[in-house]
Specification:
With about 120 residues, the chain is of the alpha+beta class. The chain has 2 domains: about 45 residues; about 70 residues, Ubiquitin-like (UB roll) (Roll). Helices cover about 40% and strands about 20% of the residues. The protein has 4 helices and 5 strands. Strands 2-1-5-3-4 form a 5-stranded mixed β-sheet, covered by helices on one side. Strand 1 and strand 2 form a beta hairpin. The longest helix is centred in the first third of the chain and has 19 residues. The chain is elongated, with a radius of gyration of 21 Å. The N and C termini lie far apart (about 45 Å).
Length: about 120
């Protein structure tokens, strides 16, 4: 589910709880504090950045800092532009798997300083 939708849902739930009377069991403040912290963690996660290394066949490294929710197409295009080649002539791999344009670092479970390998696409024949 989209993180923005989760954040909005959590905020609406928090607002509903604020209007609910939990005074009988004394848990209202505890629940509100928990939800506030969960909202803060979600907001922080949405704005989190990650440092990635793109390593070429010649062992050259290009470093990128992007949001974990940014589609990796932007990184791929920036790398191709920097190298002066067409993005269609390159193949990007993470842990041996080809990276799709719509994939994000978050979806791939990437961590700080992970390495993306890039290869020149070779046409057989």
């Amino acid at each position: 589910m989209n993180t923005k939708i989760l954040l909005v849902a959590a905020l609406l739930f928090t607002a509903a709880l604020a209007k609910t009377d939990f005074s009988r069991d004394g848990r209202r403040l505890e629940l509100l504090r928990y939800l506030y912290e969960a909202n803060a963690r979600t907001a922080k996660l949405m704005n989190s950045f990650i440092n990635l290394k793109v390593m070429g066949v010649d062992n050259s490294e290009v470093h990128f800092k992007i949001k974990i929710t940014t589609q990796l197409k932007r990184l791929k295009q920036a790398y191709a532009d920097r190298m002066g080649v067409s993005i269609h002539s390159l193949r990007f791999l993470f842990n041996g798997q080809r990276i799709l344009d719509t994939t994000t670092p978050k979806k791939l479970g990437m961590e700080d300083d992970d390495v993306i390998e890039v290869y020149q696409h070779q046409i057989p024949g």
